[in-house]
Amino acid sequence: MATPLRLTRRRAVPGLAVAALTATAVLSGCASKADSEGAAALQLWTRSTPASAKVYTKVIAEFTKKTGVKVDYVPVYENFEQKIQQAAAAKKLPDVVINDSSLLGPATTQGLVGTIDKASIAGSDQIVDRAWGQATGADGKLHAIPFSTQAMALFIRKDWREKLGKDVPKTWDDLVSLAKAFQAEDPDGNGQADTYGMLVPGSSQRGYTAWWASSFLWEGGGDFLTQAGPGKFTPAIDSPRSVDAVTKLQGLFCKDKVVVPGALTLITDDAHPFFEKGQAGIYLTGPYMMGRFDKSLGKDRYEVVPAPAGPGGATVLGEGENIYLMAGSAQQDGQKKLAEFLISADGQRLGMNGTQPNPVVRIPVNKNVDMLAERKDDRWALIAKVYQESARTFPQVPNWQPFRQKTSETLNSLFATCDADVRGALGKLAADYRTELATQKVAG
C-alpha cells in the first residue's frame, strides 16, 4: 500500500489576501460532513459552472461506487478564491479542491496545502512528465497533483474568412489584416457595420487582461520575469521586446481599432456571446469553449487554429487544473483515494465527457488515455500538439497573483489611453515587480 501523504506546514507570507491567516489556523480543521448514516463524507470543492458540475457529479458517483467513499460535492464558480479564504479563516476548509494551477502559489504560501510525496500516490507514474510543472511550487517541491491541462488557440469564424477569400493567419500582420477585414467588409452579409475583428476579455478583474495578453507578450519576445538563478527572478516586463509587444497590443485598441467595444470591462463569461452571436470573428481562448460554440454557433462555422508566431516564436499560455489535498483534513486516506481515482485512466475518461460538451478534463494527464479515441475530434489533437510544442505557464514565483493583478491594471490602462507612454508605464510596473519579488523573498 502507498505510504501516507506527507503534509508540511508553511509560514504565511506577508501581503497575501488574508494576511492574518497562518498555517496553524488552517491546519486545525477541514469541513468534512457526516452522511445520513453517520460516516464522514469527503468534502470536494471545484471551480465549476453548473454544466461542468454535472460532469464532476458523474465522476464522483463512479468514485463512490468503486471505493465506497462518500463525497459531499460543492461546486463554486463566483468568487471562488474569496470563498476559499473565508473557509480557511473559519477553519472549515474542504478536504479536496480542484481548481486552476494559479491557486498553487497562494495555497502553498498560506499553508493551505502541504508537500506531496509523489511515490505515495498510486498512478502518479502514469502522469505525463510535463503536467507536473503546473503542480510544482517556487521551492521546487510538489504541492498538488495535475488533473487536466490545456493550451490557448485562435477561434476564427471560418465562414466569414472564406466568404472574404482570406487565408488562415500565419503572422501577426496576417492576424491584424484579417481582423480589419472582419470589421470593414461585412463578412455576415447583412449590410450593417455590426461586426468586429477581435474579441478580448480585457477586464482587470481577476487579472483577465494579463491572462489574455500573456501569449502575445511571449510571442513578441517579451516576458514578465527572468529567472536569475534557482528560485530568484528579475523583472523583464520593461525589456525592449516587452515594450514592443505591448505597444503592438495597444495598437489593436488604438491604431487598428479592431477590438470589440467595451473589451476592457469584459470578463470571459461576458465575452463569449460576442463570438457565438456573430459580433466578433477572432477569439484567443481555451479549448473548453468548443462544446459551447459547437452548440450555439455550429461546428462548421468556426475553426480552431494555432496562434500565429510572433518575433519571439510560437508561444501561448498553457494552463491546467490541479487536485489540491487541503491541509488539516482528518481524511488523508480518502483524499489520496480520490486523487488516485481522478488521475486514473477511468477517472480521466469520465472527466473528458466523451464527445459531449463541458469536459472537466481537457487534455488528459494520464499517458494511457487515447484522447482521440474518446473525443473523435481532430481539433483536440491540435490543442494537444500546441500544448506539447508551444505552451508555457506563468512564472513559478511563490504567489503569481499580485503580479498578474498589477500587470492587468497597467495593461488595461495602457489599452484605454491611446497616448499613454508604454515604456514609462512598464518601467513603473517593473518597479512594482521588484517590490513584490523582495516581499516574496525571490528577488535576484
TrEMBL record:
Name recorded for this polypeptide: Sugar ABC transporter substrate-binding protein
Entry annotated with the keyword Lipid metabolism: no
Keyword Cell membrane belongs to the record: yes
Keywords carried by this UniProt record: Cell membrane, Lipoprotein, Membrane, Palmitate, Signal
Signal peptide (residue range): 1-25
